[in-house]
Amino acid sequence: MSKKKKQKKKKIENSSKSIQNAVTIPAGGGTAESRILDWLDVYGVDRDSMPRDALSEITYYTCIKTNSEMLGKMPLKYYQKTKDGTIQPPMTETLRLLDLRPNEYMSATTLKSWWEMCCGRWGNAFTWIQREFKPDGRYGGKYIVKGFYPMHPKNVSVIIDDKGIFGTTGCVYYQYTNPDTGEQVILKNDDVLHFKGWLSNDGLMGMSIEDVLKANFDGSNAASSYENSLYKNGMTARLVLQYTGNFDDDRIQEIQRKYGDKLTGAKAAGKVIAIPAGLALTPLNMSMVDADFVNIRKYSALQICAAAGCKPSNICDYSNSKYASSEAEALAYLDIFSYRLKMYEDEINAKLLTPKEYKKGYRYKFNEKAVLRINSKEQAEIIGILMDHAVYTTNNSRDILDMPHVEGGDVPLINGSYMPITEAGAAYRTKKENSKEPETTEGGNDE
Predict the structure, then answer these.
(1) For 175-292, where are the alpha helices, taking DSSP H only?
(2) In whole angstroms, what is the distance from residue 107 CA to residue 113 CA?
(3) pTM for the full model?
(4) How far, in Å, CA of 12 to CA of 240, rounded?
(5) pLDDT on residue 22
(6) For the segment 355-376, what is each residue's pLDDT rounded down to a tens digit?
(7) Phi/psi-derived region of residue 137, left when phi > 0, alpha when psi is between -120 and 50, beta in every other case
């Protein structure tokens, strides 16, 4: 018998001497997740067999999926702020790329979902902006965007040129290494869209959720591995086979193999077997109820959910849901996600708009209203109220309903009884003045 197996067997024997009916989580310092790891390491789960990828943790996967889908389905709009209000300028090539097909390999939805996934998993998302110089007449010209190509965070290094090697001191550059050929390319800061995670130590590189909650992921993965081992063993507890007499090692291994096949595995669940006289089977396992296993797993899941910016309902936990409707819950989640949207908008506007365009009021902005789905009755009521107050025209409302325009539908309609606040009460004053009778004298002036 190997040294490792002897040590493990010794641990079990020592535990069986001190345990009468149940086993509790060992007391001591550390988080609940680390205590679960210690417990599972002794009672049936090998840490080395657990998945190392945090994405295999179901709660974390669900949160990353939820955030990625949220950004992926949110359309990006192009506006211009003028003195007459906000207008929507004509479609540009850059907007067409961001809204439809950023490159020949993926759609805009896929790219935006990839941005958020990378920010959650690695803390950073990098996208190369392919530009091409277009001459304008004999002299001059401008650069136009030809495409957006994602670069995996593991293949990108951020460089700060503090010695002026590239001609400018203190500028940021990005070094991309092709994983297939090993070729390296240095890209300027303006040629890379760099999106960061929720947190950052230096303001330059983002921090991933996995780095912040590493202990929680280890405990959650260990708990998942323990559940999987229970299912594989047919929900059978670990057993100690007690016997009387002296058996050699070959005989002991034969007994273990014989009853191990009959008592473990999914096919053995619920079966009744006969045990010869002189043998006794004693369960040796921690009670999941005594260990508060369910509550610890639930608490760990809520911690991961909160760190990822998701609501408990996103992981199908409605036990403490206090929202009156799905719309109110979507608004609460969108309020948390609004920080992420502002970060994306800042980076896109800084890298894709020229200073001249920015001064003229051009902006890229995500339309968060597109993800707030309401029923037809509520939609009709809201549109009607906005039309009554001249916020929407008839054609604006028909655009929302995906209906064609009608002639004369671009004129705002408003109730004719409305008046400016400065004229409030004018109707009553006029009525009072008209009710006054002019003063007349009869018989001329008295002398």
Answers:
(1) 209-212, 214-232, 249-263
(2) 10
(3) 0.67
(4) 9
(5) 35
(6) 999 999 999 999 888 777 667 7
(7) left
Containing 379, the helix (H) or strand (E) segment is helix 376-388
Residue with token string 């998993």: 121
Contact of 146 with 132, CB cutoff 8 Å = yes
Residue 268 CA to residue 273 CA, distance in Å, equals: 10
DSSP SS3 for 56: helix
- Kindly state the helix (H) or strand (E) to which residue 136 belongs, with its residue range: none
> What is the Cα–Cα distance from 98 to 77, expressed in whole angstroms?
9
pLDDT score recorded for residue 115: 96
Round to whole Å and give the CA distance between 241 and 279. Answer: 7
DSSP state of 289: T
Q: What is the largest CA-CA distance in the chain?
A: 150
At how many degrees (to 10) do helices 32-42 and 3-18 cross? 110
Is 37 within 8 Å of 219 (Cβ atoms)?
yes
* d(C-alpha 133, C-alpha 160), whole Å: 26
CA atoms within 13 A on the CB side of 209: 27
Phi, psi for residue 54 in degrees, rounded to 5: -65, -20
Distance separating alpha carbons of residues 327 and 372, to the nearest angstrom = 7
- Chain mean position to CA 150: 19
Q: Are 198 and 180 in contact (CB under 8 A)?
A: no
Residue 50 confidence (pLDDT) above 50:
no
> Under a CB-based contact definition with an 8 Å cutoff, are residues 382 and 401 in contact?
no
Q: CA 173 → CA 148, 151, 154, 399, distances in Å?
A: 17, 14, 16, 44
DSSP conformation letters of 324-376? SSHHHHHHHHHHHHHHHHHHHHHHHHHHHS-HHHHHTTEEEEE-GGGG----H
**Are 320 and 312 contacting, i.e. CB atoms less than 8 angstroms apart?**
yes
The pLDDT value given to residue 291: 44
Give the C-alpha separation, 109 to 104, whole Å: 13
User: In the structure encoding, which two tokens stand for residue 143, read together?
Assistant: 């650069």
Closest by CA to 226, choosing from 280, 128, 297, is 297
Q: Which of 360, 361, 220 lies closest to 304, judged by CA?
A: 220
Q: How many residues does the chain have?
A: 447
**% of the chain surpassing 70 pLDDT:** 60
The predicted-structure confidence for 277-322, as pLDDT tens digits, reads as follows 666 766 655 554 444 445 555 657 777 787 788 877 777 776 666 6
